[in-house]
Specification:
Strand content: 15-25%
Oligomer: single chain
Number of domains: 2
Largest sheet: 7 strands, mixed
Order of helices and strands: HHHHHHEHEHEHEEEEHEEE
Helix content: 40-55%
CATH class of the largest domain: Alpha Beta
CATH architecture of the largest domain: 3-Layer(aba) Sandwich
Radius of gyration: 22 Å
Number of strands: 10
Amino acid sequence: MAATEQGSDELSLAGPNKNELENIEIELLLTGIHRLYGYDFRNYALSSIKRRIWHHVHAENLPSISALQEKVLHDRTCFERLIYSLSIPVTEMFRDPGLFLTFRQKVVPLLRTYPYIRIWHAGCSTGEEVYSMAILLQEEGLYEKARIYATDMNNRSLQQAKEGVYEISKMKQYTKNYLEAGGKHAFSKYYTAKYNSVIFQPDLRKNIIFAEHNLATDTSFNEFNVIFCRNVMIYFNDELRDHVHGLFCESLSRFGVLVLGAKESIHFTGYSDCYEPLDRVEKIYRKAK
């Protein structure tokens, strides 16, 4: 009996293994960020958030996640750099052109019946898809009666979106996407080239409202005819994903349209029965009740 008790004591003194300790460090870091700064990453998918945290630990030349926690809690500029790392923007103009072509064909006819159109781009990143929507609506004669609300939790990305300035090297790919998405003009009419950058025409921004919004913590702020949220929820766990779907369902008007990313779905959420598919392939759904 004594030998068994001694072995048990030795086991308990060994403490958690490396993976358990790492998870504890991450939990403490995310809890500290939430309590001090109000940003909630606690329900993001662990594997994704872990990779991004370690990337930032190395970028800051720190030895551990605990060291990052100490620096983040005492240095706001370090926190702001971390926020940018945790919400790395991945987007492009007319990304997945087939989606935008289907939107022209199946959603635009519905929007023509509305006297006023509100569209929410949730998690708009650096704004490429927002300007894509502005161009599409302008070409379909709907932009003057539309308001696009472009939100993101990453202020640095939002600032770039507001400026509408992008690398000229990306225009070849963006032009290809635009034409495949049913574009009706020369894509170059929408921007002015200057040195190694382009700036999109100011008239595309006049009906766009950029604002900070955190899907994990903030509430609904309007009623919308269309909500775009593409490839954002792939980083969330089931609990947060369900919470966000509830937010979208609450925010959509009757017969409003929800557009998701290629790897996302409303299935296996508590809100799947709120929608009917407009296009299953392109993940476009219409609120049914």
